[in-house]
Specification:
two-stranded parallel sheet, globular, alpha/beta, 5 strands, three-stranded parallel sheet
Length: 158
């Protein structure tokens, strides 16, 4: 198993201690712009969780095209434009705007094992213009969930 964590928070070190002996751990504080596509190419799955809005109904995410070109399976909102240009054989659709359609309360992608999404896409509504603080908050919550699950798993194996 490989964990790739992009964080400059203190809990990244706690995750590193838990991963020792169980998983290969890669820690990054920042991903340089030139390295983004390389990082994406290593992904197991891509998630494009566009919310249904007046503008998004016509949106085609460049991130989705990157996933498709790189051959990465993609999970996307069932917005009309996406359904027009992609078939269910090419991508997996979920109900746009349904906060329970993609991730659960611990950021696990529903219907998968070992995959979490922790970014602004998990918000049912974008919380204002300055979303950095709420993103840090969900990152802390996700870290707590990951650490708690790792402790439960470690206790079960004793």
């Amino acid at each position: 198993m490989r964990w790739h964590v992009t964080s400059n928070g203190l809990k990244a070190f706690a995750i590193g201690r838990i991963a020792q002996g169980h998983a290969e751990l890669l820690l990054d504080a920042v991903v340089p712009h030139a390295a983004v596509l390389t990082r994406i190419a290593g992904a197991s799955v891509g998630v494009v969780p566009n919310l249904p809005s007046r503008l998004n109904r016509f949106a085609l995410s460049t991130k989705l095209f990157e996933y498709v070109v790189l051959g990465i399976p993609a999970v996307v909102s069932d917005l009309p434009t996406l359904q027009r240009y992609f078939s269910p054989e090419e991508v997996v659709f979920f109900r746009a705007g349904d906060p329970e359609a993609v991730v659960d309360s611990e950021f696990r992608v529903i219907g998968t094992r070992g995959l979490r999404v922790v970014d602004a896409s998990v918000f049912p509504r974008i919380p204002g213009f300055f979303i950095v603080t709420p993103i840090y908050m969900i990152a802390e919550k996700a870290t707590d969930a990951i650490l708690a699950e790792a402790h439960r798993d470690a206790s079960a194996h004793r």
